[in-house]
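Worked Example 4.2. Consider the chain below.
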Amino acid sequence: MKTVLEVTDLTKVFGGLEAVKDVNITVKEREIHALIGPNGAGKTTTLSMINGTLAPTAGRIVFRGEDITGLAPHKVALKGMGRTFQNIKQFGTLTVLENLMVGGMSQNNKGGVLHMLLHTKETREMEHRVREKAEYIADEIGMYGLKDEYAENLPYGRQKVLELGRAMMSDPALILLDEPAAGLNPSERAEFVEILQKVYGKGIDLFLIEHNMDVVMNISHRITVLNFGRKIAEGTPSEVANNDDVIEAYLGDRFAKNKKKEGVG
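Applying the procedure from the previous section yields the following structure tokens:
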């Protein structure tokens, strides 16, 4: 199985504080890989270094065989890596379809802002292609019926799905998801898991941070666990659920007992 993402000795220091220290993660192709741990464990910092939002203090990031360490986020995106954010970053006064189109413009507009403003035949053709793609993605994520609804009017769960749809617009090989199911109720989480599995089924690999263990355990092939900025465990959901260090640092005895009752491990 090929490697899609290789993180080696990744470290981030903020004013003398080691937020992430010597973290190593390997994400294989055709894999859903989760990153879990307590609040403040360094998960979002790790994700931000991977996609270029933060520059690493040390370490190396290789994506699809290419060293992308320190590359700017828009350049990382052009390499085939999408990202969603814990705090939803949408344009509330734009429709669902328009939000999706914004997600596809940077990938298709090779001439820059001035080229777009001139509204040439080429840009009109590009806009038509992006609109068609946005309609296709809206249908894929179950939001075609809401394509003309303003994003600010959507229920929170639908906004989360729209965020995922925007990440899909750039034809990513891998999407990084920062707590995609945060704030969703159990039925919304179940629906979101179905959408994530559908996205994965389309050939897109997923690397997610998530606190909801029902999501993590049901969707992940492999899990990495951080605590105080360091990796303390890695393995299959069953292995992680029964790891004493993970139970002590994060999951707790109640989770382990429940998993044993359900036959995990």
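The first strand starts at residue 3 and ends at 14. The mean pLDDT is 88. Compare this with Example 4.1 before moving on.
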